[in-house]
Amino acid sequence: MVRPVIAGVGLILHVPALMALLSVPICLIFKEFYAVPAFLVTTLVSGLVGQVLVSVRYPGMEIQQHHAMLVAALAWLAVAFLGALPFLWIARLSAANQAAGIFSPLENAFFESLSGFTATGLTMVPRASELPFSLQWWRSFSEWVGGVGVIVLMLTVLPPGRDALHLYYSEARGQRILPSIRSTTKAIWSVYVFYTLLGIVLLWLVGEPPWRALNHGMTAIATGGFTITDASLANAPASVEMAYIVIMVFGAVSFLLHYRLLWHRGRRASVFRDTELRLFLLMLALGSAVLWTQRIASDTAWLQRLFHWVSALTTTGFQVGPLDQAGIASVLLLTLAMTAGAMAGSTGGGIKQIRILYMLKAISWWLRGTLGRPHEVMRYRLNGNPLSQSKARAGVEAASVLLAIWVVLMFLDVFALLHILPTDTCLENVIFELASAQSNVGLSTGITHADLPLAGKLVLMLAMWMGRLEIVPVLVLVAHLVTRH
Prior knowledge:
The chain has about 475 residues and is mainly alpha-helical. The protein contains 22 helices and 2 strands. The chain has a two-stranded antiparallel sheet with strand order 1-2. The two termini are about 15 Å apart.
């Protein structure tokens, strides 16, 4: 039982090793030679630990579905822990850069790393523009890889087999673009790299400096939200805001639809008939219209209202203005958007639009069954295709269970955080912050900062971790630990 899990985690630990090695040229380009050892040590430690863990594998050993769930739950924590090494190393060199010193406490370094790899974007850094270029890059790179997933990256080189199949589904992915897992992951990365380059070029064309365009293009398509500027994207020109909106929306759309649109001529027409995509676009339009009547800040223009709605629904987390003084109605709307989240199979977080769609369908089917004629045969359809009654019920049941668990966990986290924060903290801001963490968004009302008590940071980190895995692997891990004792 233990060996397949250990070996699986060992495989995934090669990802931060490779990432750190690829980051060394950034240190050399910007002459931050003091940062080179940080990334080389991360490469060495991650690679060695990964190899040691993989060595427990024996011939014929397979990773089953429950093993894969445990691997996903543990690997994300292990990757984030190893990803914190560059933050810790460079933070100790306070003479080189004082802004990086904020990562000197282990909890701050781990929080930033976990926020990056889960593509959340909540940050400990008040002045990201003053960080070393190497750490600005590391934050963006971790979100870019985390947007698709560290397991998906490893599966591009893993031999095909049942191990790859189980690991793919363990990372909250339920769609296969092509018949095999390896071809599917390669297709995902081809789409991802293409849109990343497209986003970087778009930001550069609308006036973003090259370094900012590179970093923000990576975090925007990853729907991550880390920036290398202070106060996120405040004071950005309208043309720049529109460019970010386009990239965020593209990142929140299913890779399956992107693949059909780009490289599957025969199925391009089906992209715009996809019911989940239509629901997502409808929510974008309706939310923007409703926020027209609200006030997010006293001097906020409609484009900024639109920007925050898109940022919340796509679970990106970019901000163009403060949210701590927003009206309760606006905070509630943005909280609902973050909770609903992006499309399944995208880089976005949240409950996902497909589950919202199933819940809406369930209401429709229930009404038809209640109001229909006595012996009328019920027909179930999704995306224009017929569904059997068993599949329809299974979809509704899965969506209902996840939604129920999601709400319960939110309530528990809010309850815990209210006992940690000052007593005058607004309840709506606490709910907003935890919805942002659990949906891997990164929008903040100011609760997340380096001086937050350790218990508060732990609550937010737990929410980010569980939200990125869509809860189930974490519950499997807890059940495994409980039953073993």
